[in-house]
């Protein structure tokens, strides 16, 4: 597994550091998204109204939420996009015919990205939270960054399960376009779970990251009872793992039968 | 036996578009019972026209395609049931142009794949350095160059380097010199030859280049429309086609006479021309190499002529290819 993570780190950091625009986008993403939400929000209400309703100023709330969203979407994009990327690069046959375990290979994909997002948290979450809550909030800020990374990791097994099944239908990039807005809504990152209608809350509860995001919101609001949420998130991650494995093996079997692995 | 294909069959389901919305399913029979063997340390060429079934065969042996029926074994391991074990002992080269990550250097790409192959860090570092030298990539300054900046020749060398990373006993190379310039093609051929002869590696090699197949391969399999239509060494295959060999004899005679021309033409089934300096050029067809040649030469000597040179023109492998694939 360490070897696979090392390989993925090589690929990810080469892509990011040799394409500077990606690095700039990553750094700016939380700020731009926060700005957009605040502009839309201020046209309908005020900062005070938000604070009295949610219990926290909208700026630290949305900067943290945007950061978490970037991390989680990054993980789902990396996993869902990789089979298509490999096909484009022509590396697909060499990856599939490697003796490595497909589930471990897929789990290793987002880990290097998480290490970078943690670094990027120090340019968004950390300064904003420290500015609003003072240096006494340092530990909480760091734990929010850690929980964001955990939210990304927690989603990986579900993303693998979807990735395997999605690529079976062909034109899987279209499915990615559907998954992204669905995650936007049901993660509960901007739209907390407790204010969702029942059906949405039910769907949201099935997504492992929604629970770790709940934990982040608890920390932001000054609470400390986060272990149950983290536990449920991790349990759901474990629950989707064998489904992800099965989905990958169905995908591989179908591709190998139909001759779908292009050389 | 290193590679064994037993009655391999494969059909593909393809869609034929009818207008904008509708489509019709079509079945394409890619392999219709392909069987062959490749011995240890042997270089076997798989030749055939486009769509003959070469790539399908290669993909099955590379564990990238499951046959509908039949079996394929690599070093005694079943490519379907024991795919994971087979993947550890084969090196594959399927395309020259693609197959690597553009933003990684050649060396980084090899590091990436060696991690995917589960190779130990120290071993892979040593192996990559060794391969960079062996394939001349370091000499070309390609080691630390991004793959997207590589020439086709460099890409082919890197692709062969990846196939050799695991030091596999069996190599499956699908048109490894396609589109390469002569020096790069020669480099690849020389390497493949030395890998088989010096390191006893088994090589299955597909190509459209007849010259390459002839000089490189111990044996050739000709595949057409999903079936092996001929098999043998290049020499054996050439003997199997009805095209006659041509013999060209240059002889000298002191006395230049038109009668001599008719006399030779009467003795042999050929064409004779006599030049002003007394050089006699004889072109004749041979039925069989050994017997026909001595018979013709004997007749010419019996006329008192001095033989200066003898050239036998054999049918080419291209003649063999055309003969068997256009039947």
Write the layout of secondary structure elements.
The complex is a heterodimer of chains A (263) and B (327).
Chain A: H1 2-18, H2 20-44, H3 47-54, H4 58-89, H5 92-96, H6 102-108, H7 111-121, H8 125-133, H9 138-168, H10 172-186, H11 198-205, H12 208-220, H13 227-258
Helix pairs in contact in A: 1-2, 2-4, 4-7, 4-8, 4-9, 4-10, 4-12, 7-9, 8-9, 9-10, 9-12, 9-13, 12-13
Chain B: E1 3-18, E2 22-38, E3 43-47, H1 54-61, E4 69-74, E5 77-78, H2 83-89, E6 90-93, H3 106-116, H4 121-134, H5 152-164, E7 170-174, H6 182-199, E8 202-206, H7 210-216, E9 219-224, E10 227-232, H8 234-239, E11 245-252, H9 258-267, E12 270-274, E13 279-286, H10 289-302, E14 306-313, H11 317-325
Parallel strand pairs in B: 3-8, 3-9, 6-7, 7-8
Antiparallel strand pairs in B: 1-2, 1-4, 4-5, 9-10, 11-13, 11-14, 12-13
Helix pairs in contact in B: 3-4
What report would you give on this structure?
The complex is a heterodimer of chains A (263) and B (327). Chain A has 263 residues and is mostly helical. Chain A is built from 13 helices and no strands. The mean pLDDT of chain A is 84. Chain B has eleven helices and 14 strands. Chain B has helices at 54-61, 83-89, 106-116, 121-134, 152-164, 182-199, 210-216, 234-239, 258-267, 289-302, 317-325; strands spanning 3-18, 22-38, 43-47, 69-74, 77-78, 90-93, 170-174, 202-206, 219-224, 227-232, 245-252, 270-274, 279-286, 306-313. In chain B, strand 4 (69-74) and strand 5 (77-78) form a beta hairpin. The mean pLDDT of chain B is 84. The A-B interface holds A 3-4, 6-7, 10-11, 14-15, 18-19, 89-91, 93-100, 105, 253, 256-259, 261, 263 and B 10, 12-13, 55-56, 59, 62-66, 84, 87-88, 90, 92, 94-95, 97-104, 108, 111-113, 115-119, 121, 146, 162, 174.
């Amino acid at each position: 597994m360490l070897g696979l993570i090392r390989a993925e780190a090589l690929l990810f950091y080469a892509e990011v550091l040799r394409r500077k625009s990606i690095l700039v986008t990553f750094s700016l993403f939380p700020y731009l998204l926060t700005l957009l939400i605040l502009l839309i929000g201020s046209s309908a209400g005020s900062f005070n109204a938000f604070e009295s309703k949610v219990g926290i100023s909208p700026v630290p709330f949305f900067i943290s939420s945007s950061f978490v969203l970037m991390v989680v979407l990054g993980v789902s994009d990396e996993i869902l996009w990789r089979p298509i990327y490999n096909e484009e690069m022509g590396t697909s046959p060499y990856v599939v015919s490697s003796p490595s375990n497909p589930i471990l290979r897929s789990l290793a994909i987002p880990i290097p990205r998480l290490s970078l997002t943690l670094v990027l948290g120090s340019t968004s979450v950390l300064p904003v939270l420290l500015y609003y809550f003072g240096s006494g909030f340092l530990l909480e800020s760091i734990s929010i960054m850690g929980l964001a990374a955990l939210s990304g990791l927690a989603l990986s097994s579900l993303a693998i399960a979807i990735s395997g099944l999605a690529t079976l239908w062909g034109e899987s990039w279209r499915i990615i376009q559907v998954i992204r807005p669905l995650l936007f809504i049901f993660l509960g990152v901007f739209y907390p779970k407790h204010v969702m209608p029942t059906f949405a809350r039910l769907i949201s509860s099935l997504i492992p990251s929604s629970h770790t995001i709940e934990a982040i919101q608890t920390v932001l609001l000054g609470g400390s009872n986060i272990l149950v949420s983290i536990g449920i998130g991790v349990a759901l991650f474990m629950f989707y793992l064998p489904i992800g494995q099965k989905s990958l093996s169905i995908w591989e079997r179908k591709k190998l039968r139909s001759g779908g692995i292009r050389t | 036996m290193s590679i064994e294909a037993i009655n391999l069959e494969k059909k593909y389901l393809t869609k034929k578009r009818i207008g904008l919305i509708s489509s019709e399913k079509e079945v394409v029979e890619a392999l219709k019972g392909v069987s062959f063997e490749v011995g240890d340390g042997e270089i076997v060429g798989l030749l055939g026209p486009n769509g003959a079934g070469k790539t399908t065969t290669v993909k099955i042996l590379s564990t990238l395609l499951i046959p509908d029926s039949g079996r394929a074994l690599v070093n005694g391991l079943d490519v379907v049931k024991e795919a994971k074990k087979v993947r550890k002992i084969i090196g594959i080269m399927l395309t020259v142009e693609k197959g690597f990550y553009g933003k990684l250097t050649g060396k980084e790409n090899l590091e990436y794949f060696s991690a995917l192959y589960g190779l130990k860090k120290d071993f892979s570092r040593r192996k990559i350095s060794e391969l960079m030298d062996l394939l001349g990539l370091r000499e070309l300054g390609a080691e630390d160059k991004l793959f997207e900046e590589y020439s086709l020749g460099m890409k082919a060398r890197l692709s062969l380097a990846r196939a050799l990373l695991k030091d596999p006993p069996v190599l499956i190379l699908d048109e490894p010199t396609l589109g390469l310039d002569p020096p790069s093609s020669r480099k690849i051929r020389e390497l493949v030859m030395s890998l088989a002869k010096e390191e006893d590696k088994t090589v299955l090699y597909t190509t459209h280049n007849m010259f390459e197949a002839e000089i490189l391969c111990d044996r050739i399999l000709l595949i057409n429309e999903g079936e092996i239509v001929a098999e043998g060494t290049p020499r054996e295959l050439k003997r199997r086609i009805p095209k006659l060999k041509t013999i060209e004899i240059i002889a000298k005679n002191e006395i230049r006479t038109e009668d001599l021309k008719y006399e030779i033409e009467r003795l042999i089934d050929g064409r004779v021309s006599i030049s002003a300096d007394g050089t006699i050029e004889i072109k004749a067809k041979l039925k069989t190499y050994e017997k026909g040649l001595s018979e013709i030469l004997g007749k010419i000597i019996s006329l008192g002529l001095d033989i200066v040179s003898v050239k036998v023109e054999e049918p080419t492998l291209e003649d063999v290819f055309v003969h068997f694939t256009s039947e």
